[in-house]
Fold:
Amino acid sequence: MAEPRTIKISAIARVEGEGALNVTVRDGVVVAAELNIYEPPRFFEAFLRGREIREITDIVARICGICPVAYQMSAAHALEKALGVSVPAGVRELRRLLYCGEWIESHALHVYMLHAPDFMGFESGIAMAAKHRDIVERGLRMKKIGNRILEVLGGRAIHPINVTVGGFYRSPRVADVQALLPELQWGLAAAVETFRWAAAFDFPKLDVDYEMVSLRHPTEYPMNEGNVVSSSGLNIAPEEYEQHFEERHVPQSTALHSVLLPGGKPYLVGPLARVNLCRDQLSDTAKREADSARLDWPCRNNFKSILARSLEMITAFEEAARIVEGYRVEPTPSRAEVTLRAGEGCHATEAPRGLIYHRYRVGENGLIAEAKIVPPTSQNQGQVESDLAAYLPGVLHLADADVGRRCEHLIRNYDPCISCATHFLRVKIDRQ
Structure:
């Protein structure tokens, strides 16, 4: 019997959060691949209870510094349903523009600083910048454009403060919004260059029969609204989400795992799932680029999620430019009046990393009585483990350090947002 071999990789950046990967191999066969998230629970759902309605969007924004808008939008929509609130004319488009800004800044950060170094052979985006400064500067400029959208509409780039139940505390000035247009036009061209650049990468082989899940809207690429659909034919309103999806505790992780019912099957959310399920609703430029690259869709190789993110960046820039060009009058009022009452509401939106679900129950006193939040990363955790089990047999012939590096690359496909920390992965391989 061969001696067990252990690999430890500490202080790995380029994902958010802390965790470990434990792989057990017996006689050359992978018998376990467990993603161990050991970061302490943060209890957001618990300390939302008893809070006033207006506090919620500001509190949930603190869940993530990269995708605060996703938490704000999901909460605002769910609470508006609970309270019977309809937003004023023009607010829906501004919310979509705000979401475009978050997709742009998050996708640009991931593509250029976190994911591309794996394909380019660098240990970090900083190391890549030493030899490819123009490429990294392009990505950072794209991210800055997304941040600027959040500043103009949300009041600041990190944890926006202008979002509230019913709309915005104030409408963005027409001049400030239209000033975004030149950079958005540059960004659209840069996003096309990004997709073409990434399409030339050498992608590892991976072929997984994913159960893919995302929102789908009747007339637009999904961000703020839509039904929850899957590759196996599921098509439900967000109000039915908890009848078909379940969060479960697993012994190896402080993060819950979400599964699809019946059967408890893992599933995929995020850019690759969205593009596979909603490719026909990408912007015209994104569809042309996807067609010209002659990519096979549906795509079952999550290493190519970088291409899906790049297509979504094209769509977000094109959609943002359309909204900015049409913004001629500041919505008045900027938010609907909210009358407190008992009620319950739930909603799902599409965070950069995938579907995000919120449910709130408002008590007779007008305060939050119950909150449930299902982030994208918890929904992807089980699928990450399944991907690892499928991928590892093809790389086990490598030295342990190389196996660990390949596993990190695979996990980074998902851009997991475990928290806002930087250290992520220690890999332990038990070979017997």
Notes: The chain has one domain: 44-379. Residues 27 and 432 are 6 Å apart (CA to CA). DSSP finds 14 helices and 13 strands in the chain. Residues 44-379 form a domain with the Cytochrome-c3 Hydrogenase; chain B fold (CATH 1.10.645.10).
